[in-house]
Amino acid sequence: MSDFRTLPASGPFRLENVTVPACLLGQSGGLVAHALSIDEGRLSDRIDGPQIDMGGALVLPCFIDTHTHLDKGHIFPRSPNPDGSFEGALHTVGADRQAWWSAEDVRTRMDFALRCAYAHGTRAIRTHIDSIAPQDTISWPVFAQLRAEWAGRIELQGASLTGVDRADMSGEYARTADIVAEHDGILGLVTYPVPDLRDQLRGFFRLAIERGLEVDFHADESGDPNATTLNMIAQTVLDMGFDKPVTVGHCCSLATQSERDALETLDLVAKAGLNIVSLPMCNMYLQDRSAARTPRWRGITLVHEMRARGINVSFASDNTRDPFYAYGDLDMLEVLRETTRIAHLDHADPGWIEAFLANPARACGFSLPSLAFGAPADLIILRARDWTEALSRPQSDRIVLRAGRAIDRCLPDYSELDHLMQKS
Questions:
Q1: Residue 309 and residue 264: Cα distance in Å, rounded?
Q2: Catalytic residue among 16, 221, 334, 354
Q3: Cα 302 vs. chain centroid, distance in angstroms?
Q4: Domain 63-364 has CATH 3.40.50.1460
Q5: Which InterPro entries does the annotation name (predicted)?
């Protein structure tokens, strides 16, 4: 396979003998042989210029990461999860936010995370932003500044985040919704069983309707089979005729419910047209964790059953080096590798790669990844000729092209954040 130093620094060129997923060419089947011409930063039908034999290298469009938490990222060194549990993460992040989250702290950590994602080959990200007052007035302006600075490299979307039991729909969260609208964001909510959930959801959707906002939920992130808020979200969408995109992340409890109840909910989700995001790495870290006890389930939702119903399913990074997930680097290739194993995507529909590319683009409204003539030449080239080669190694020597030119993939050093980790 060619090294990026042999790729031309200017002018058109053609990558001969590459391997790509058939679904990205509008074909059925798995991986197919192909060739890609690049000219003026885009894929072209020209065949002039140097022709480079890539030795069957697997080529993908740059990834889309549709569920992240850039504002929480990289706080684990100063605020580790005491026991690895969801409750431990919730309380630890809350304390860290109250003590540390100035505009400069949030900005520095978010920018560090974006540099990691860019080096790994991600071109678009939706991040959830903790929006409990007064943090909403701090973090949203920081997000807006970074979105402008990163334009052309990573397209950014922001979604507000607060728990359903802390959201006053007629008071404080209405003010937050105004901030979200001011910054062209997405209105978000974390749902779990509470006595007035139906009324809260209706109030939440009214806030979104009044401001013309899309919505994004965290739902049922637990192993409690009685956590059935996904069902109520879908029913509320249908009852209210909400016509903006609705995305729901996690939905872990579906895997612990009876087959009948879970599948009835999925039928309703399909009818309501919801987008679902599964976060396998984070949910394996948190779910079914008890001291001195081996976990009995994986924490992943029913992705195969969703796909069979035509539900738009995506996979994403979620948290990065924070109390909700102590690891990760916003590397969507790692997410693809681990999800393939965790969710048994292998020996299944070869089109699952769309859950890391086209599906998140559809959910968020990002431009669709494409290998068609005229598409941006934003590509990831792997030193691998098939999926088993690609997913058996970290692919740390991958080549990332943006506008047809190889980028510098040097990752930022963690020592850059040391000044933020000094506990007082």
A1: 11
A2: 221
A3: 17
A4: no
A5: Amidohydro_3, DNase_TatD-rel_CS, Metal-dep_hydrolase_composite, Metal_Hydrolase, Metallo-hydrolase_Enzymes
